[in-house]
């Protein structure tokens, strides 16, 4: 019992610590923070047209220059230059509304890929027709079909509206 | 408020101030079949009071704006004025600019609404030093 408990503790120390990830642990190991692991237990930033003011600003770790700019923001905004105002905006928001609404050219890539693979499939089907399928049955040869057609006419197949109705029995030709 | 924005679109070449809708039909924020329906003036007053709270905090500003943008209307300039002043009290210039962007987006295809709103807010924008998204160049992607 004691040994199994020790085993479990050993496993916990060895495995679980590595499995339970946190951004600080990742950052300590040199991973870029907040990209691979999103902490869903804290408010997140998002770019949404219907949510103009997200829960947190986009950039939370401010450099010293950004901190001084934030201090300057507490004073009259008329004293800020255009670049400073733009910098303040970009601190809080990743994408502007225009950037959010901008489309992309991805659909062209999708359509091109679709046609490419359709064409490739066509090539495969063509190769298969030539190299995999055997000969067509002899009952589809012109000679056989000719005799078959004559027999169908002689038998009066579908004489009212169908096959034989198209044959002129007096003139012995197709109508 | 601009719930009858369709009427604005019929105004054509007339000036914005003249074509502003002056209807008095009460419209409710909530569509109950019973109970008293809130008038446009009451709606506006309620929201102006909300944003005019002197000690409004950042959460309340965000909640208010996100809720207001969720409604099927473009907020009146006086509500937006109160919201921009709330941003000033909270030392949040970025949110003030964002509010203007959101208003332009809310107007949708009715392109004459946003210039009207900016025109009405121009005194406040100049006083507080809030640039429009166009002045910062972020209106184009």
UniProtKB/TrEMBL annotation, chain A:
<comment type="pathway">
    <text>Energy metabolism; oxidative phosphorylation.</text>
</comment>
<dbReference type="GO" id="GO:0006123">
    <property type="term" value="P:mitochondrial electron transport, cytochrome c to oxygen"/>
</dbReference>
<dbReference type="GO" id="GO:0045277">
    <property type="term" value="C:respiratory chain complex IV"/>
</dbReference>
<keyword id="KW-0472">Membrane</keyword>
<comment type="subunit">
    <text>Component of the cytochrome c oxidase (complex IV, CIV), a multisubunit enzyme composed of 14 subunits. The complex is composed of a catalytic core of 3 subunits MT-CO1, MT-CO2 and MT-CO3, encoded in the mitochondrial DNA, and 11 supernumerary subunits COX4I, COX5A, COX5B, COX6A, COX6B, COX6C, COX7A, COX7B, COX7C, COX8 and NDUFA4, which are encoded in the nuclear genome.</text>
</comment>
<dbReference type="InterPro" id="IPR036639">
    <property type="entry name" value="Cyt_c_oxidase_su4_sf"/>
</dbReference>
<dbReference type="Pfam" id="PF02936">
    <property type="entry name" value="COX4"/>
</dbReference>
<keyword id="KW-0496">Mitochondrion</keyword>
<dbReference type="InterPro" id="IPR013288">
    <property type="entry name" value="Cyt_c_oxidase_su4"/>
</dbReference>
<keyword id="KW-0999">Mitochondrion inner membrane</keyword>
<dbReference type="GO" id="GO:0005743">
    <property type="term" value="C:mitochondrial inner membrane"/>
</dbReference>
<comment type="similarity">
    <text>Belongs to the cytochrome c oxidase IV family.</text>
</comment>
<protein>
    <recommendedName>
        <fullName>Cytochrome c oxidase subunit 4</fullName>
    </recommendedName>
</protein>
<keyword id="KW-0812">Transmembrane</keyword>
<feature type="transmembrane region" description="Helical">
    <location>
        <begin position="109"/>
        <end position="127"/>
    </location>
</feature>
<keyword id="KW-1133">Transmembrane helix</keyword>
<comment type="function">
    <text>Component of the cytochrome c oxidase, the last enzyme in the mitochondrial electron transport chain which drives oxidative phosphorylation.</text>
</comment>
<dbReference type="InterPro" id="IPR004203">
    <property type="entry name" value="Cyt_c_oxidase_su4_fam"/>
</dbReference>
Automatic annotation (TrEMBL), chain B:
<keyword id="KW-0496">Mitochondrion</keyword>
<keyword id="KW-0999">Mitochondrion inner membrane</keyword>
<keyword id="KW-0472">Membrane</keyword>
<dbReference type="GO" id="GO:0006123">
    <property type="term" value="P:mitochondrial electron transport, cytochrome c to oxygen"/>
</dbReference>
<keyword id="KW-0832">Ubl conjugation</keyword>
<dbReference type="GO" id="GO:0046872">
    <property type="term" value="F:metal ion binding"/>
</dbReference>
<keyword id="KW-0597">Phosphoprotein</keyword>
<dbReference type="InterPro" id="IPR003204">
    <property type="entry name" value="Cyt_c_oxidase_su5A/6"/>
</dbReference>
<protein>
    <recommendedName>
        <fullName>Cytochrome c oxidase subunit 5A, mitochondrial</fullName>
    </recommendedName>
</protein>
<dbReference type="GO" id="GO:0045277">
    <property type="term" value="C:respiratory chain complex IV"/>
</dbReference>
<comment type="subunit">
    <text>Component of the cytochrome c oxidase (complex IV, CIV), a multisubunit enzyme composed of a catalytic core of 3 subunits and several supernumerary subunits. The complex exists as a monomer or a dimer and forms supercomplexes (SCs) in the inner mitochondrial membrane with ubiquinol-cytochrome c oxidoreductase (cytochrome b-c1 complex, complex III, CIII).</text>
</comment>
<comment type="pathway">
    <text>Energy metabolism; oxidative phosphorylation.</text>
</comment>
<keyword id="KW-0809">Transit peptide</keyword>
<dbReference type="GO" id="GO:0005743">
    <property type="term" value="C:mitochondrial inner membrane"/>
</dbReference>
<dbReference type="Pfam" id="PF02284">
    <property type="entry name" value="COX5A"/>
</dbReference>
<keyword id="KW-0479">Metal-binding</keyword>
<dbReference type="InterPro" id="IPR036545">
    <property type="entry name" value="Cyt_c_oxidase_su5A/6_sf"/>
</dbReference>
<keyword id="KW-0007">Acetylation</keyword>
<keyword id="KW-0408">Iron</keyword>
<comment type="similarity">
    <text>Belongs to the cytochrome c oxidase subunit 5A family.</text>
</comment>
<comment type="function">
    <text>Component of the cytochrome c oxidase, the last enzyme in the mitochondrial electron transport chain which drives oxidative phosphorylation. The respiratory chain contains 3 multisubunit complexes succinate dehydrogenase (complex II, CII), ubiquinol-cytochrome c oxidoreductase (cytochrome b-c1 complex, complex III, CIII) and cytochrome c oxidase (complex IV, CIV), that cooperate to transfer electrons derived from NADH and succinate to molecular oxygen, creating an electrochemical gradient over the inner membrane that drives transmembrane transport and the ATP synthase.</text>
</comment>
<keyword id="KW-0349">Heme</keyword>
